[in-house]
Every structure is written in structure tokens, then in C-alpha cells.
């Protein structure tokens, strides 16, 4: 049996089971939801099991409460295939008042009319993503994001070299890839994209969608990864790629579908104003849930990434944002980005629940650190301190080797040393 590698959401799930009756783990397919949930469950149902489909259909139609029978906590894997289980769980928790009774996992959001009640106060949610570099044991975790937020001194040396970073981006954070030898580990993301386009975009809600057009949309998002690309640009890209126009409502449906499948994520623009009178951009940045999907969608090879380091920098940013989102969720923080109409930008703004915040620039190479430091310094100097606290930290997150705190207080952190 393959050894379970602990996930950062483990402690979040444990905590939620202590104070709520049920926990729903959401996230894209293959990110490890079921494996993680089984570490906590004492019994489970896998609704995707074809051998039991007739039995499940019969129970669903006659007495759904039978699904709940079993040792607790009880896991319902891919619960959205039988949405009635949601209302059965909610009612059972209402009657018993017990905590930590059920765990649900889902790789797609169910249709809104498939459940009767929201589950508020009975069922809480957490979002799971593919593995961060710390979870895949590639980051040594010598630097804690929490320490940075609190202004503590740090030091660390990454064990990931440039080739290792390229490998991590191509392979992605898919847990199963860590159990595969040789170049086959890099094929999982390609299979994922094929499955997404051939099956998932149709089965998510039963709507027939054009695979070629969805592929063109996914390609446009990938080409513009880690930017606040407009829908007009995506439409123009699709027209060029597909030699046919896609309507705005169709594009909206395709983007919503990718979001329902937890593939597409939006990084919102911050509402933080500087002293400058320049208006802020308000459109979100587009990120895919894992950098390997960008590479697989565009069919890029290792030499393509090495020969175009500018674009590889955007893919690196996508990987860093994946990890930052995982670490931020664990400490109850949220992420946004800053950009004004003059295109002055900071890659990431992190805000904690207790009001601390900081600015992060993401740069692949050590040679870019001075420009990133200059940008962060300019940003800090223009924060309107009459309206906002000064930032608790400024950080350059990089693919370079060393992590340290500079004399001016700005952190330089290697992604290969970072953890929550």
C-alpha cells in the first residue's frame, strides 16, 4: 500500500470535524480528496463505483437515509452523483446534533436545484488543491509563511535547482504522479486535460459542449496565465484558433464550467488604494489550479520552457499562487492582486483575518530580485496610511536558492523553502 503523504488540509479537516456535523471537501479530480478523507473516515461509499450503481439508484429512489448507515465519520465520495444525500445528512444532523459525523467529497459543484437546503450551520466546506511543493516534499519547509507575516527572522536554502522547478511545473501537484517512475509521471496532466475535454465538460451538468471550442478557450487562458486577460481577448483567441466565432454567452458558460470543475480560479483585484489618483483595474487574474495543466494544454516540452523564460515566469507564478493559496487557506488568509490603469502592479496581496497584510512579488530568477524589491518599495511608499495600516511584510517569492530577510526588512524567499 502506498504511503500517505500528509496534506496541509488535514489539520483543517480535523478541526472542522470537531465543531460541525459534516464537512464537504471540494476540489478538482485527482487532487487527493478521497485519499485524504479516508484517513479520517471509519466507513465510506464510493458513488462512482459502477458495480453498485443499480443498488445506489434503488436506495436513492426509495429510502436515501439508508446511505447514512455505517460507522462514523462516514464518507460519501463524489456525493454530487446522488445529491439527495446532502439533504439526508442535513436532516440527520438536525435530529442528532452530533459533530464529526460525515465527510463528503466532490469534484464538481452540483446543479443548484438538486438540493433543497443550503446546509448552513450543519455542513461546512473546505477547498483542496493539488499538492504544494511542501506537500510533495520538494520544499524543505524551512521558512513559514506565518513567520513572515509576523515579521520574524528567517533563513533557508532550497534543495530544488532550476531543472527541479521545471520538472515540478511539468509534473504538477498530482499525488499519483509521485508514485510513477521515469517520464511517465509527466503524462498525468495530459491525461487530465484529455479527460476534461472528452468527458468532464459534459458530465458536470449534462450539457453538450463543443470539445474543440472548449480546448481553444483553455488554450487562450493558458497563453494568458497569471494575467487579467479580458473576455474580448479570449474571444479573439478562440476565433483565431478555431476559425469560428464564439458568442459571449457561450464563453461565459465555458468559463463557468471550468470553475465548476475547480480547474479555473480567479484572483480578485484588491480594493487597496494608494495615494496615487490612478484608477485601479478591477478585473480578476485568471489562474489554472495547477501549472501542469497550462503546459499540457499548450503541449509544451521542457526545451520550450527553457527557451522562453519570460513565459515560463508566468507559469512559475501560477505554481507559486497555487502554493500560496494552499498555505493562505491554512492560516485563514486571502489573496488578491494590485494593478492600476498605468499598469503598476504587485503580483499578490495577502490579507489575514486579524487585519495584517503584505505584498508579494513573484520572480523566477535571482536576477529579477532587485527590480522586485524596487517595485515593492515604491508600492509601500505610496500606501495611503491615513486609510490603511502599513504592510506587515514585503516579500519577493523566487525560484532562487536562498531565503533571508534583507536589511531593509524585505523578505526574499525561495519557493523551495516555503510552507504554511
From TrEMBL:
Q: Where is the DUF4143 domain?
A: 206-364
Q: What organism, scientifically named, is this protein from?
A: Candidatus Onthousia excrementipullorum
Q: Where is the AAA domain?
A: 22-136
Q: Output the Gene Ontology terms for molecular function.
A: ATP binding
- By what name is this protein known? ATP-binding protein
> PANTHER family per the record?
AAA+ ATPASE DOMAIN-CONTAINING PROTEIN, CONSERVED PROTEIN
- Give the top-rank taxon of the lineage listed in the UniProt record for this protein: Bacteria
Which keywords fit this entry according to its UniProt record?
A: ATP-binding, Nucleotide-binding
Q: Which InterPro entries match?
A: AAA_14 (IPR041682), DUF4143 (IPR025420)
Per UniProt, what is one Pfam family of this protein?
DUF4143
Q: What taxonomic lineage is listed for the species of origin? A: Bacteria, Bacillati, Bacillota, Bacilli, Candidatus Onthousia
